[in-house]
C-alpha cells in the first residue's frame, strides 16, 4: 500500500502480532484517531486515508476514507467481517500509518507499520501503539494460533484414514480370495466324490442336524457381505474410526470456542457474548468430570473403610 500512496518515510518501524485478539468498535475508532494524529491530518485534503474491510463471501473489499463505514456495518453471521485495515499518509510522503486486523496468519493476525522523518519519534510512537495492540490479545491464543498443531493433526488423521482404508481393502481382498479357494475345493470334492452332492441335496430336504465341523461340506464359502459386516462391527475398527472422528470433532469444537479474530461490530457483539457463555459451559462440564473422577474414588474408598 505504501507503493500505491507513494509514501517513502525516512524511518520505518514494522512488526506483527500472531495472537488471537478481540477488537471492539471503540478500539478501532481509537486506532483510527491515533493514525490521524500521527500523520498530522489537520488540513482537509492534505492526507490520503484508506479504510478497508472485507466480509465473508465478498469478492471485493469495501473501501472508504473513514472507519465509520466499517463500524456501521451490521456484521451478520453468514457475512461476518474477516479483516479490517487502515492505511494513511500525507501528500508530503514523509509519514505513514498502516494497521490491519485479519483472521488468517499471513504473515500475522495483526500487522502494524509506522514511518516518519525521525527515528526516535517513530520508534517511541510505534512502541506505544504496539503495547496497546498487545492488550487486545486473548489468553487462549496458543490454542487458537496452532498452525503446527493443525498440520500435525491433519497428517495423523489422513494417515489413519489411509491405513484404515488399506486394511479394510486387504481384508476384503483376502476374504474374496479365501472364498474363491474354498469354493474351488468344494467343487473339486463334489466332482471326485459324487455322493457328497447327493448328501447335500438330502440335507436340504430333511431337517437333519448339521454335519461335523471337519466334514468337507463345511468348506463351502461363507457370505462375503456378512464377513465384511463382521469386520466393520469389530471393536478395533470402530475404535480407530472413533479416534479419527473424535479428533476431527475436537478440532471443529476448538475452532468454534477459540477463534483467532473477533470483531465486536454489529451482530458480532451478540455472537461474542454467546461464545463466552458456551466457553464457560464447556469449562464447567470439563471441571465437573475431573472433580467427579477425583472425588468419587475418594468417597468410595472412605465408605469401604467404614
Give a structural overview.
- This protein has 306 residues and is of the alpha+beta class.
- The chain has two domains: 2-144, no CATH class; 155-235, no CATH class.
- It has helices spanning 2-5, 25-39, 68-71, 119-134, 141-144, 147-192, 194-205, 224-232, 235-257, 268-305; strands at residues 11-17, 21-24, 47-55, 62-64, 81-90, 96-102, 110-116, 261-264.
- A six-stranded antiparallel beta sheet has the order 1-7-6-5-3-4, covered by helices on one side. Strands 2-8 form a two-stranded parallel sheet.
- It is elongated.
Task: Return the average pLDDT rounded to an integer.
Answer: 80
**Would you count the extended β strands for me?**
8
Radius of gyration using CA atoms only: 34 Å
Proportion of helical residues:
55-70%
Oligomer: single chain
Point out poorly predicted stretches.
212-220
Give the helix/strand class.
Answer: alpha+beta
Instruction: Walk across the major sheet and give the strand order.
Output: 1-7-6-5-3-4
How would you describe the shape? elongated
SSE succession:
HEEHEEHEEEHHHHHHEH
Largest sheet: 6 strands, antiparallel
Approximately what portion of the residues adopt beta-strand conformation? 15-25%
Provide a count of the helices. 10
Distance N to C terminus? 76 Å
- Write down the domain tally: 2
Amino acid at each position: 500500500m505504501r507503493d500505491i500512496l507513494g509514501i517513502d518515510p525516512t524511518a520505518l518501524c514494522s512488526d506483527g502480532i500472531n495472537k488471537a485478539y478481540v477488537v471492539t468498535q471503540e478500539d478501532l475508532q481509537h486506532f483510527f484517531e491515533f493514525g490521524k494524529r500521527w500523520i498530522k491530518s489537520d488540513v482537509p485534503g492534505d492526507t490520503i486515508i484508506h479504510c478497508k474491510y472485507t466480509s465473508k463471501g465478498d469478492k471485493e473489499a469495501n473501501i472508504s476514507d473513514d472507519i465509520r463505514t466499517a463500524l456501521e456495518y451490521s456484521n451478520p453471521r453468514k457475512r461476518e467481517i474477516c479483516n479490517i485495515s487502515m492505511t494513511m499518509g500525507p501528500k508530503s510522503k514523509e509519514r505513514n500509518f498502516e494497521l490491519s486486523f485479519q483472521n488468517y496468519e499471513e504473515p500475522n493476525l495483526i500487522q502494524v507499520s509506522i514511518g516518519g522523518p525521525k527515528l526516535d519519534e517513530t520508534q517511541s510512537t510505534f512502541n506505544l501503539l504496539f503495547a496497546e495492540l498487545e492488550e487486545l490479545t486473548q489468553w487462549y491464543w496458543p490454542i487458537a494460533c496452532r498452525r503446527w498443531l493443525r498440520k500435525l493433526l491433519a497428517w495423523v488423521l489422513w494417515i489413519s484414514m489411509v491405513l484404515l482404508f488399506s486394511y479394510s481393502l486387504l481384508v476384503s481382498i483376502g476374504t474374496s480370495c479365501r472364498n474363491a479357494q474354498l469354493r474351488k475345493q468344494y467343487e473339486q470334492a463334489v466332482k471326485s466324490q459324487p455322493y457328497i452332492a447327493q448328501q447335500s441335496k438330502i440335507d436340504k430336504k430333511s431337517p437333519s442336524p448339521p454335519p461335523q465341523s471337519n466334514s468337507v461340506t463345511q468348506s463351502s464359502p461363507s457370505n462375503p457381505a456378512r464377513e465384511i459386516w463382521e469386520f466393520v462391527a469389530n471393536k478395533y475398527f470402530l475404535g480407530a474410526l472413533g479416534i479419527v472422528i473424535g479428533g476431527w470433532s475436537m478440532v471443529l469444537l476448538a475452532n468454534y470456542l477459540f477463534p483467532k479474530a473477533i470483531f465486536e461490530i454489529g451482530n458480532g457483539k451478540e455472537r461474542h457474548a454467546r461464545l463466552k457463555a458456551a466457553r464457560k459451559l464447556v469449562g464447567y462440564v470439563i471441571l465437573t468430570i475431573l472433580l467427579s473422577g477425583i472425588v468419587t474414588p475418594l468417597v468410595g474408598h472412605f465408605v469401604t473403610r467404614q
